[in-house]
Amino acid sequence: MWSPPCATACRRIRPEAASYTCGDVGCPPLSARPAVFLDRDGTLVRDLAWGAEPGELELLPGVLPALRALRAAGYALVVVSNQAGVARGLFDLAEARRSGAHLAAILAAAGASLDGYYFSPYHEREGRMPAFSRASEARKPGAGMLRAAAADLALDLGRSWLIGDHLSDLAAGLAAGGRAILVDIGQLAWPTAEVIPALLRDPRTLVARNLPHAASLILASLLPSPSRFGEGVGRGWGRGRPRPPTPDPRPPRPAPGPPRARRALPLAERAMAGAGGGRRAAAGGRRTPIILRGPSMRRRSA
């Protein structure tokens, strides 16, 4: 968790606040961090079709090292999950909060602490609970949960990513002003290229096999691209600019000597010598406050 840069502890003010004043010591405003927003079911944990029991949560393979790598790169980790089972009456808000707290505890114990956990209990068409049976910007593809997290945790949405397994996840990430990665868990079955959704044609979206692959794509985006003649960072080749010639790392070949007389070999010896020549074939734990946001999102998304 971020700590104030001054000597005073600033205990009276939330450390995630975007700016503050620290008693006798002036503190600079907290600079916004980028975040990786994470869908829950089908991305972090196995999708169990509305299951919200804490004991049923099962992390998908490779999730923990991927989250550790993203956190080490400076990204805040925030879960943003549609939990329409509340609107359908399958479980209540308390159960949804317990499930989120259980997941946060599992990740924190493994060194992949979350900075926030946000869920939306709304569904405008299939809800049975009157309080949650309505449209809400807090439900993806709306960006309400992402904007609420950005305000609570001082996040830079323009440098943030969202990883999820539905097109609504992509739409939420782009609506918030960031980039998005779709995790392909077998749902990409469009028959022709003409019917691929426009979201996947957007240059701000990528497709990954799973969460570890998505994390590797995000981390690769942090690497500087080759610059022209070594000047500047981040300008790739292209746009009609020629690539400078690459020097040959191999040592120069020696100058050929005078021709030597070739000794005639018997046919069998020449055949054995040729069998070995030619081109060879190519060989193949720290405590972090977790924000569980539910129906209070209505104030932001009304």
Features:
302 residues; elongated; alpha/beta; disordered C terminus; disordered N terminus; seven-stranded parallel sheet; 25% helix
Task: Report on the architecture of this protein.
By secondary structure, the protein is an alpha/beta fold. It has a domain of 203 residues: HAD superfamily/HAD-like (Rossmann fold, 3-Layer(aba) Sandwich). It is 25% helix and 10% strand. The chain has a 7-stranded parallel sheet with strand order 6-5-4-1-2-3-7, sandwiched between helices. Helix 5 links the parallel strand 5 and strand 6. The chain starts with 34 loop residues before the first strand and ends with a helix.
Mean pLDDT: 75
Task: Name the CATH homologous superfamily of the domain at 35-222 and 287-301.
Answer: HAD superfamily/HAD-like
| Percentage beta strand | 5-15%
Number of helices: 8
Based on DSSP secondary structure assignment, what is the total number of beta strands? 7
Strand order of the largest sheet: 6-5-4-1-2-3-7
Helix content: 10-25%
Instruction: Work out the radius of gyration.
Output: 28 Å
Q: What string gives the helices and strands in order? A: EHEHEHEHEHEHHEH
The largest sheet is: 7 strands, parallel
Q: Would you state the CATH class of the domain at 35-222 and 287-301?
A: Alpha Beta
- Sheet/helix structural class: alpha/beta
Shape: elongated
CATH topology of the domain at 35-222 and 287-301: Rossmann fold
The end-to-end span amounts to: 31 Å
CATH architecture of the domain at 35-222 and 287-301: 3-Layer(aba) Sandwich
Poorly predicted parts: 1-29, 227-242, 262-290, 298-302
